[in-house]
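[DERIVE STRUCTURE TOKENS]
===
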Amino acid sequence: MKKLLAILVLTALLLTVGLSMYRVGMTAIVEHPALEAIRQGVLDKLQEKGMKLGEDFEELYQTAQGDMNTAVSIAKQYSNSDLDVVVGISTPSAQACANAIKDIPVVFSAVTDPVGASLIERLGKNNGNVCGISDMTPVRTQIRLMKLVMPEAQTVGIVYNSSEANSVSILNSAKETCDELGMELVEIIGSNTSEMINALNAVVSSVDFIYIGTDNTAANSIAAIAKSAKTAKVPIMAGDIDIARGGGVIGFGFDYYNAGLETGEIVYQLLTGVPVSEIESRLISADSLILYVDLDLAEEIGLEVPENVVSRANVVVKNGVEEEMD
């Protein structure tokens, strides 16, 4: 009888532990190093706070493989999965989660324009169940930087998917910047890799450089985009360091692991009882910006990068080696 009682008590304790484990759902629109870095940053921040994965919390993670219908399906599945917090990484995934989930907190990350994407009313504190971190990339600075590298440049080709709200916001900023600089902006639009490459090949010989912001479709297509640009000897400026690593001469963007840590801080606050209405949605810290320069690729396409740009770089590729600078 005593053994039976002990077993019942132990079972009850195990059930209690199981019930007290927090459940965090995360989803991204595509598999991409920047988005994976955010996911890892969230997990690391929770563990840094003393929460053990598999004991204090568990993670559910799915990617939509670039398909919006899949993103919606994942969000609906999460809405019925008894989760404590859902993290939508990228604008499409965050929108799908915010639309499908109303009774638990939704945290967005890597969302360029959360207001324009109708996730929140304003940066700062909001009512509702949605909050998070914006990666509004400094478009004006990026294009001005490339103009510094190429003073004679007059025409910029911007590669983007017009169905991504984040990319439309970047497009509008790029238009304003090009107008200020007296430059022409050529739109290179595609909803998938094939469409993007066809659109790019039609105009690549007429642009001085290609600009890619934080477009998810372009990120997924960067190998093909870079091949076309390299053949035409047209440099790419990327607003995402991982996109730049795929074939850009210059990259100026955020360290997305740090963005994940900031997102994880919000997730931790929510799990420990802070209401969504008390959490400020904000931009990624400017300290997370990184300047990347690929001197090997620049030499290969005949572009000279000024020393005053190289000297400010955080990461330089030279002689086949990527080196972090002091």
